[in-house]
Amino acid sequence: MPETADQPPIAPDHAGDHAPAHTPQDHAEVYSFLGPSGTFTEAALAQVPQAKGKHWRSVNNVGEALGDVVAGRSVAAMIAIENSIEGGVSVAQDALATIPDLRIVGEYLVPVNFVLVARPGTRLSDVKVINAHPVAYAQCHLWLDANLPAHGHLPSSSNVAAAASLLDGSPADAAIAPPGIIDHHDLEVLAENIGDNPNAVTRFVLVSRGTAIPAPTGADKTSIIAELPDDRPGSLLDLLEQFSTRGVNLSLIESRPIGDSLGRYRFVIDADGHISDERVADALLGLRRFSPAVIFLGSYPRADGRHVDYDHRYRDEVFTEAREWLKGLTAPPGE
Amino acid sequence: MPETADQPPIAPDHAGDHAPAHTPQDHAEVYSFLGPSGTFTEAALAQVPQAKGKHWRSVNNVGEALGDVVAGRSVAAMIAIENSIEGGVSVAQDALATIPDLRIVGEYLVPVNFVLVARPGTRLSDVKVINAHPVAYAQCHLWLDANLPAHGHLPSSSNVAAAASLLDGSPADAAIAPPGIIDHHDLEVLAENIGDNPNAVTRFVLVSRGTAIPAPTGADKTSIIAELPDDRPGSLLDLLEQFSTRGVNLSLIESRPIGDSLGRYRFVIDADGHISDERVADALLGLRRFSPAVIFLGSYPRADGRHVDYDHRYRDEVFTEAREWLKGLTAPPGE
Amino acid sequence: MPETADQPPIAPDHAGDHAPAHTPQDHAEVYSFLGPSGTFTEAALAQVPQAKGKHWRSVNNVGEALGDVVAGRSVAAMIAIENSIEGGVSVAQDALATIPDLRIVGEYLVPVNFVLVARPGTRLSDVKVINAHPVAYAQCHLWLDANLPAHGHLPSSSNVAAAASLLDGSPADAAIAPPGIIDHHDLEVLAENIGDNPNAVTRFVLVSRGTAIPAPTGADKTSIIAELPDDRPGSLLDLLEQFSTRGVNLSLIESRPIGDSLGRYRFVIDADGHISDERVADALLGLRRFSPAVIFLGSYPRADGRHVDYDHRYRDEVFTEAREWLKGLTAPPGE
Amino acid sequence: MPETADQPPIAPDHAGDHAPAHTPQDHAEVYSFLGPSGTFTEAALAQVPQAKGKHWRSVNNVGEALGDVVAGRSVAAMIAIENSIEGGVSVAQDALATIPDLRIVGEYLVPVNFVLVARPGTRLSDVKVINAHPVAYAQCHLWLDANLPAHGHLPSSSNVAAAASLLDGSPADAAIAPPGIIDHHDLEVLAENIGDNPNAVTRFVLVSRGTAIPAPTGADKTSIIAELPDDRPGSLLDLLEQFSTRGVNLSLIESRPIGDSLGRYRFVIDADGHISDERVADALLGLRRFSPAVIFLGSYPRADGRHVDYDHRYRDEVFTEAREWLKGLTAPPGE
Question: Which CATH class is domain A215-316?
Fold first, then answer.
């Protein structure tokens, strides 16, 4: 399968396909990912059992991947959501905030590791210019400063494209790439583990459409995007209290500019628990009442499988008992 | 029915009945109040339209009044609940906290005003010893210091009893009493308006049994008694947040010792609004989940008729809309 | 000095003096307490080492006791402050809130225990009317209901006066009194331990004048009275946050009506720690800025001797380090 | 001056200079900015009065700009901090969080506006591949979709580089650039105002070294970066309370991964007011005590000149009065 045909340095709109033959009725079986083969995103998709043996559609950016889902070209798209290498948190978060009817149905972690590759025969001392995606480039800052202090940087649109371009006329001498790149391209590794942080990991989410929600597992998270009602002091405090008064812990809270003017933000939130948990559902109710715009992005199993820990006074029985109690207070005599 | 059989043999607060004749089947029409005739409590009961023309049962203390309601001897009891003259907040609050199945169904305000009365012929300069209920005595402190600096105080069990005892062999020369006392007893007023605070008012509540709740009027309050879950720092903060996160204002919060050991308290709370208001019902749910012991004392019209003011983002429609939204999130496709 | 001249002509709570002889220059050595001999307050004063062998001045009520201190007649006064038998929390709290320049310098606990006493020869079955201070009477409710269901109640101004009056012409047959009463009066005990709560205890404070503060012991509390800035929703939350954001736990918070109109309260607060603790001092600063009226009542050793437990991130060093840091931020270059 | 010499597509380490001649002793007069000429960053630097007529050093990225300041090569560096076009918030925020001894001394706003440029003679219909910095490319998404739906994207390292490369052998047909680009390069404008948001603006800060703080103007902001003490629920709430309990409003709060592991964040905060404001200084003290790592980035005049509005109960006098009060509480008698 000619992977390199998927990797035109100039024509990102040209997407490639894993499976050579497919027909429109297969769309429910297509998975979109940031390609081409060898990307970290592909490694994340490889963790999805139901995607095994299905058609994997390689696309050029997050917008295209989510566009496939919205248009029905794919059943789901794998996108990087945090500490991203392939395009970053902000783009994905903003896309999820503005494209309607998307749902996160799974979370996956991929260790991030880089190698420096070059055309066969190149020596490290020959390297003057390096092809690299800007984010990957930034993550190898320390190694480059120590080993190639005088190098130049030629930005690339993806990690794989950076490497592939070496065989396609690029003036660069070397490229920063994922370790698996040499399985796909005739390149040699000049240095391994050149990333600054040996524990780096990228978090991916599998995004689908519709209202189906994966069943609760006890180790779930719920993703939400919410705007603050106004910029009065303390409104973020009020938002956070919607969770804390229900004993719901947040594993992520990020602000993103809404974009219409400086100083207006929406918040991207990952909460521990599942929408079918009473405390999470009640927090969602509180959030909906509080926020002028709230998007439920889904409840899904955590990639790390860590069980959600919460105070026993927020367990489901407490919520149902309270509802029964309230109902009893206003029941007519004799009931 | 021998009402007087309920009276202690030496009863400074000699109780009586307004209506001379009644039968057991009339019990649903009996109202208990702290007597005897002339008390501020009687003045509060006189504000209740449905009590007009019914049997008013004079009792000696709050416990007896509520006991009448519990035992079915009365349909309701009028008791002082705040800034009380006739026995005080604490006794009433503790009784409501410990006697089950009571409901406050109305609130009434009575201006508090005192006169100094004496047997006919007594002059102010003759007064050496004053009969007075301790609370009333305390409220006339400034006038007494200025006008009778050398007097002695003989405590009495009620304001009316203080005055009545003057005609019953008391060694006192004068008594502090409510203004209406001279309608009931052959006494003369030596001084009027002797209370320290001309705006003093006592708040009374009418207490009934069962689960019927007065219809919302838009000017309602809801009374609750709740214990804190434990004495960890901040648990009172958590309790208050149950209201503030729903936009519910509190007009009263008082702590009362639970009584089993020092340092353990329950809180008596008056919240603006009616249990049929979504925001109040939701705060009650939150409170029930939070507190190991919460008593709903009722929702009823405010005595001052002041409309409840609250932020429009806590109006009923916001709550019902949020519930619909949450329901839609988890609805199967096609619904 | 004619102490008896201070007594009202009809004084059920006949006050007296422990020491037969004293002169005005002894005033700094006089301690006032709610008398007469045999009261729980006297038992509290007996716990004060520095009061040993000094003149103890018996007075009739809290106001008189604090008046002695203000006027310089006493060096200190012992008053009941919580769960009180001898006159109650509210009176003491309100006095501390309104009389300036008072300081609490010590805290003492006295177990509360009652006996039923009568003139020699009286049998329990003879008892028809009982003399009792209303608060003591309320605390023996269960025993009385079970053993003397048909009794009448004659209120008294103090526990000791209730007993003493049996020998002074009272029509009552028995009295509720502290256990030590038979050391002072020719009475017999009809029943012991008649209080409803075997663990009942009254908390007393020793009140002095001036600005001297007992040295910190590590097991201290700090008493404050503060008004809320207005009745906007959440202002009590804001007050509590002054403590919680400095890691200061509260062992007591009580609301007391300010008295000028319904719905306005001041809060009586006991905080763990000493004003010389950085976190307590900082909370006091925050409280002073927040509250339109705040009264510092003192820092003093806790009666229970329990060491104050607090998060290590609020220890003194953290405060001084932060001040140094802030100072460094704005220091001119070179310093 | 040969601007294009500053713009090697491959050698970003080669920086350019505005002033043809300078010597080491001029370093205090050098200002670094993300070049080359024509960038939005240069437009921001043009707003700085004290930079007029000084040497402007063009650099390739934020790290290089701040490196100049740290190394003493420049007196200050202008960097984009929010809603950035030239490289983004995250890079700048992370650099400020990790490079010690930097101070923000000014804030500047530059409207963001884009044109599509091409080599002379090119028509819009000829455009197949577009050179663009990824952020600028993302901001013109709507216009490109509508007018050039089939284009390809070639990423560039800066907006100016994108345009300059058209004259330097780039295979692209057009470039997205700032409007002033045609003053520096022989290019033609194919379309104006192609940005999606006509009100887009980028916020820049001028970063210097040392401890000098611009004098307060009444329209200031204070920038801080702080880590949370741990990931217990509610610790972000606690952080926010450090500001809200002192009446300090936040205009920005952003989380940034600390980078050592997923789920650990630091928060970038802009607070209204100046460190010389008592309420801001006190909030900084609280923050320092709370946070295991807090960086004060400076107090400086706001770009929009908007006066800081705050509740009068947080004015300086209230803080100084409270300190005097506290001091008086513990003063020895006679002082």
Answer: alpha beta
Q: Which two tokens stand for residue A136?
A: 């990957």
Q: Which residue of C has its CA nearest to B267?
A: C254
What are the tens digits of pLDDT across the range C145-161? Answer: 899 988 888 877 678 88
Query: Domain extents for chain D?
Result: 3-112+200-208, 115-192, 213-321
Residue A113 in 3-state DSSP?
Answer: coil
Contacts of D275 in chain C (CB under 8 A): 329-330
The CATH number of the structural domain formed by D213-321 is: 3.30.70.260
Interface check for A232 against chain B (CB to CB < 8 A): the answer is no
Residues D130 and D115: their CA atoms lie apart, in Å, by: 12
Count the neighbouring beta carbons within 10 Å of the beta carbon of residue D210: 13
B11-111+200-209 under CATH 3.40.190.10, yes or no: yes
Decide if D232 touches C, using CB distance below 8 A.
Answer: no
Task: Please provide residue C71's backbone torsions phi and psi, each rounded to the nearest 5 degrees.
Answer: -80, -5
Encode pLDDT of C258-288 as tens digits: 777 667 788 899 999 999 999 999 999 999 9
CA–CA gap between residue C89 and residue C95 (Å, rounded): 10
Q: What pLDDT shows up at residue C25?
A: 46
Assigned superfamily of A3-112+200-208: Periplasmic binding protein-like II (3.40.190.10)
Q: Buried b vs exposed e over C305-325: b needs ≥16 C-beta within 10 Å?
A: eeebebeeebbeebbeebeee
Pairing of strands D16-17, A102-111: unpaired
Nearest Cα of chain A lies from the Cα of D264 at a distance, in angstroms, of: 9
**Subunits in contact with chain D (3 or more CB pairs closer than 8 Å):** A, C
CA distance A328 to chain B (A): 8
By the 8 A CB rule, do B258 and B272 touch?
A: no
Do the domains D115-192 and D3-112+200-208 match in fold?
yes
Which chain B residue has its CA at the smallest distance from A246's CA? B286
Chain D residues near residue C290 by CB distance under 8 angstroms: 313
Distance from CA of D53 to the nearest CA of A (A): 31
Best mutation target among C262, C272, C302 (most B Cβ atoms within 10 Å) is C262
Q: Which chains have 3 or more CB–CB distances shorter than 8 Å to chain C?
A: B, D
CB B12 to CB C154 under 8 A? yes
The mean per-residue pLDDT over the stretch B201-225 comes to 93
pLDDT (tens digit per residue) in A129-167: 899 887 788 789 889 989 998 888 887 777 888 899 899
Q: Which of C60-74, C225-239, D18-32, D296-310 has the lowest mean pLDDT?
A: D18-32
CA distance C227 to chain D (A): 15
- Secondary structure (3-state) at B258: coil
Give the nearest partner residue to B152 out of C10, C156, C199, using CB atoms.
C10
Instruction: Tell me if C298 sits within 8 A of D335, measured CB to CB.
Output: no
D188: confidence class by pLDDT, cuts 50, 70, 90: very high
What homologous superfamily does CATH list for B220-321?
Answer: ACT domain (3.30.70.260)
Chain D CB contacts of C284 below 8 Å: 326, 329
C10 touches chain B (CB under 8 A): yes
CATH class of A115-192: alpha beta
Using a 10 angstrom Cβ sphere, with 0-12 exposed, 13-18 middle and 19 or more buried, the burial of residue B309 is: exposed
pLDDT in tens, C288-322: 998 989 999 999 999 999 999 898 889 999 999 99
Query: Count of alpha carbons within 13 Å of D115, Cβ hemisphere only?
Result: 18
Chain A nearest-CA residue for B298: A329
Q: Does the beta-carbon distance from B325 to A210 stay under 8 Å?
A: no
- Fold annotation for C13-112+200-209: D-Maltodextrin-Binding Protein; domain 2 (3.40.190)
- Do D289 and C238 lie within an 8 Å CB cutoff? no
Cross-strand partners of C78? C33, C206
- Reported ipTM exceeds the 0.90 cut: no
Residue D258 touches chain A, beta carbons under 8 Å: no
What DSSP designation does C211 have? S
